Amino acid sequence: VHLVESGGGLVQAGGSLRLSCKFSGTTSSINTMGWHRQAPGKERELVAVISSGSDSTNYADSVKGRFTISRDNVKNTMYLQMNSLKPEDTAVYSCNALVRTEGRRYWGLGTRVTVSS
Q: What stretches in the chain show pLDDT beneath 50?
C-alpha cells in the first residue's frame, strides 16, 4: 500500500483547505484510514479516522465541527476538509491506512499546513 498526500499550503486564519490522500497497491486490504498531524516541537496526534465503508468517523475534540474526513474507494482517495482554520492547526498532516491482515499501518510522507494569524 502506498499513500501520497497533497493539498497543504499557507492559509490565513478562518480560511479553508482540503487535503487529499491518494492510495494505491492492494487497496482492497485497507481497513480504517485516518489523518494525524505533528506540529513543531509536539508529538504526533490523531486528527480523524474513517472506517472502510465510511459508515463511522471520529475526530479529535480540537477539530470537531471544523474538519470533515471522507473517503472515495472508487477513486482510491481520502480527504480532509478543513474549515475555520486556526494558527494552532499548523502542522504536517499525514494520512495512514490500516491493513489488519498484515497487522500493519502504512503512512504517507505528509503535507505541510501553515495557518497565519
A: none
